Amino acid sequence: MEIIFLGTGDAFSKQYGQTNTLLRFNDTNLLIDCGTTCCSSLYQLGIPLADIQNVFVSHLHADHIGGLEELALQNKYIFRKKIDLYVAESLLHDLWEYSLRGGLEYTNDDSVTLDYYFNLHPVSSTQGSFVIAGVSFDIIPTLHVRDMKSFGLYFHRVFYSDDVVFNESLLYQMAKKSDIIIHDCTFKENPVHTYYESLLTLPLELRQKMYLIHYNDKSEAMRARMPGYGMHCAEKHMCLRVHESGDGTLKVLAGSLAHK
């Protein structure tokens, strides 16, 4: 499996792009979120938009769904296909009614709904999972903003937190079965994200599994300090190539730039 960081910055990042990630595996792929900088990041990497086959939506902030309208329109009218959209049942109504409907409902033929553009796969919001090309994905309810539904993903011994406040018990729970933890981190205190100092309270063994995402611009000095604490900072356009070793754990080849 390849884990390609299309962007690793926060919602307002101009340096690093918004945090969206592409997984490539078993001759298919899964886009984890499609924010407003996602399509341009794919273009910069030479990855055609037409190649995207599956999308997962973690929550409804624009840095995670702001590119879905372009993805929908290009696939429908230029590439002439529908891709598979995986989304928690509790998000599906609001994704259409409050986020995408204004730009996608009206066509020259008729008024349409979300399934005009995507093959919809609603997933249970509590113990939901889905399978793509033999790989199982579990959606993990998380806390990001009070009363806002949000979800991480667990797959292939990887926990991907997406946007989340610090949750020590969840991290210990996921660390028991994860060799890689891709986790929210901000270097400025923020009540709806994980401040880096909170991560420093975790044991070194757990921190060494971490690749940090969703950090703020102009954070080069802070990011350079993270290896000293045992943590990695994911970088825009970095590709982690992971494979299972003989003992069942994941081995990582990291740091290379992604390519088509």
Find the count of extended strands (DSSP E, 2+ residues). 15
Q: Helix tally?
A: 8
Portion of residues in helices? 10-25%
* Shape designation: globular
Taken as a percent bin, the fraction of beta residues is: 25-35%
Compact summary:
The chain has 260 residues and is α/β, with parallel strands linked by helices. The protein is built from 8 helices and 15 strands.
Describe this structure in words.
The chain has helices at residues 38-44, 62-65, 68-78, 89-104, 168-175, 196-199, 204-207, 220-225; strands at 2-7, 20-25, 28-32, 54-57, 83-88, 118-123, 129-132, 135-142, 150-155, 158-160, 180-184, 210-213, 232-233, 238-244, 250-257. With 260 residues, the protein is an alpha/beta fold. It has one domain (2-257): Metallo-beta-lactamase, Chain A (4-Layer Sandwich), CATH 3.60.15. The strands form two sheets. It has an eight-stranded mixed beta sheet. Strands 7-8-9-10-11-12-13 form a seven-stranded mixed beta sheet, with no helix packed on it. β14 and β15 (250-257) form a beta hairpin. It is globular.
